[in-house]
């Protein structure tokens, strides 16, 4: 091919692509031109002139992050406000439920104990506080399943988020009413208002959580759906990878979550201690109202996906069809049938002689559903991880109250967790993960989750050791929780446990959100994200079985048992998914399927 012909082809095929231009016609540039001409017949160019990599280039070229636009950060700020409201409110639940009203302090009737006093309100004890805190976690993380279903099938993400805000605000108001001093004077009335408030609060939180995280990643994916090649200033050709870019988006999103959590928790704990619970419940509610304001003001800039109609029922019918005839009285035969590699291939529309009327989608959508179910299989193991994580906001808060506080509120110490996350998330984002990639180490999502299990196990081991020394050094022995004199142990000895929990979140919690988004069918992302959060709810239900251990003298056993379960669960998780780990790139590269709710095919995103 002549140089002139090559230049004409470059002009036609790479318009708008800065990596190749008319001046690149000799030396190494000629190889690039030939590569471009080879792609011309392969539909390997994007709508903006970007060059999609070949299979060989996907294996050989270095991968880099794409640019994150400002709208993604705006949505992150919305979630930051919501997390301030959630964690600022729940940070004082343990003391509100467990501890009695103080007899001294700046505002004892409002529950404020002051510098040397213990704040409290309902005086229901540690087991009751653990149970109600676990109920709140369970309820808040069951609701994402329902919110995800409503968003994907009927309302869309935006309407579901607005409904969530209304319901959560009503719940906030009822919780505030429970903390009014005149209401707290009647503990039964305060408890009733508090529990009803928790129900509405949890519905709003759940509907919000399952929709805001898919929404943030969709803002990037809409303009960058596939990996493409970019030439760096030094001439190196690299792949701009949406997969690792979405991973970075979730890392930064999670950092904003923890900024909100840290500020909310610290501020409200001190509001509780020096003014009263009514203030620590009111201020988060006020900030929560910024969520709808930011959503409405910027709504015309957001990328939106319309609800997909009966997508959940069709996915369920498709899964049932894959299972048809695969069960046997012989368990070995059943196992082999269920593990058969062709079970999804056999139910693709192109392979069925008599296609059911409900099968209004193509083969590619079947592959997407298969990938989504694989993600759900991964999430089945998450309750074991959350079991260790859940101790941070319940029993570890109570453990802090048994040590020397020196004027620090016992329920402020767990802010070491978001504080650690804010420090280390940028370190992992900018240094650790890029360094591993440059070294050729593919730290895949499932490897990260396994690392999260290990850190969770170590955190519980540290907590068990701390509890052992509390019993050993307390004047009351293994009745330390009811002892007026604390052992000679500063509360900051809990620091390593909270740091390890933070590391476990970086590895497993952030990765779970990323995995839910990248592996779900594009019209089922809210529901699959809801499945991810439901595992937290299931873990809270399982944790109820450990409530009998959540009191003296059994607390060492509580933390030790959870550490062992987390360790065994992590080993089993990796053994079960080590083969799936090798498929990650192929699963991410699946094309978007054609899906119809019965009328118009829905594949494109719409801008509001």
Automatic annotation (TrEMBL):
Molecular function per GO: dipeptide transmembrane transporter activity
Pfam families: PTR2 (PF00854)
Name of the molecule in the record: PTR2-domain-containing protein
Localisation per UniProt entry: Membrane
Record membrane topology: Multi-pass membrane protein
Source organism: Amniculicola lignicola CBS 123094
Transmembrane segment boundaries: 161-184, 190-208, 253-271, 277-297, 375-392, 412-428, 449-471, 491-515, 527-550, 556-577
Family: Belongs to the major facilitator superfamily. Proton-dependent oligopeptide transporter (POT/PTR) (TC 2.A.17) family.
Any one annotated GO CC term: plasma membrane
Annotated Gene3D superfamilies: MFS general substrate transporter like domains (1.20.1250.20)
Family matches, as InterPro entries: MFS_trans_sf, POT_fam, PTR2_symporter_CS
Entry keywords, A to Z: Membrane, Transmembrane, Transmembrane helix, Transport
